[in-house]
Task: structure prediction
Amino acid sequence: MGGHQWLGRHRRLWLHLARARPQPQPWLLPGPAEDTRVAAAPAAYAAAPPARAPPLGSAAAGPELPPSRSTERTPGAGKAQQGLKERYRVGSLLGRGGFGSVWAATRLSDGAPPAAALGLQVVIKMVPRSRVRHWDELPDGTSAPLEIVLLDKVSTGFPGVIRLLEWLELPNSIVMVQEHPERCQDLHHFIRAWGFRSEEVARELFRQVLEAVRHCTSCGVLHRDIKPENIPVDLVATGQAKLIDFGCGTYLQVTAYTHFAGTQSYSPPEWTKFGWYYGKPATIWSLGILLHQMVCGEHPFRRGQNISWDHQLSLPQRLSQGAQIHLIRWCLSMLDMERSSLEDLISDPWMQNIHQP
Result:
């Protein structure tokens, strides 16, 4: 179901949220360093970019981005023959860390008349080449960082995944230009501001995340860092949730992984105990944590807590049996073979009980 179709069925619910919502906050970077084994390259975006921003390269603006060769991977994204200075006006710094830096920007020209993309809000993500650990080839044979190759596979023609508009390679860094959903707030801030959400709201958002994950796996891509910070939601126009930041992603494989990338507090118990995990069950575990955060307002396991194999998950009595037993407990089964499949989650009766206004 498309975003506008979804809005038609849930307009009153989302308009109520939009009127009462707190002021949008910038999307945060991941938590403390001890919470990650391999730090993601987070696409941290501002919820509300400034109306006017200084020209790229000015003293008040962001980094100097000289004209350079560029390769656009998304059809219709523009010719990319001009330098970034001619095509983008950079605004505020949204995040900086070991991964590099992320800047808000406005597209000034798409390089071809008519300039249909004028005024498009984007983010410019700059990653030092030294931080790029894995490279692969795009369909045309171009060598590119794995994050870009994965985005090329999943971000075209599907609204639930952030869209890569273009990328280019500079001598010391990789630059990615991605779409910037307007008037959005990531689920991390959404949960912090509101606490737990009603099962109706959680169900709609969770359904969209499941569809995005299913799309990625159907393309042979494993995200590996599903968490609230990586899921912005348009709270006003469409109610669309998007999956962002494929910096920890890899190819989906049937054999076990022996290297972890992502946020440690979302890693499955088999990784902690044995040092291996399978992609699909590990994804279901992180989805169970996400759903728990949505309906309970907090992570189910305290930071630093060792999860024992006989661990009994405590859930509020107010939750329905569907949310309690068939989903959260199912996703957070200690044995990976006992966890639900993605298709089981999507077809679960609780997920199918979509509110009809």
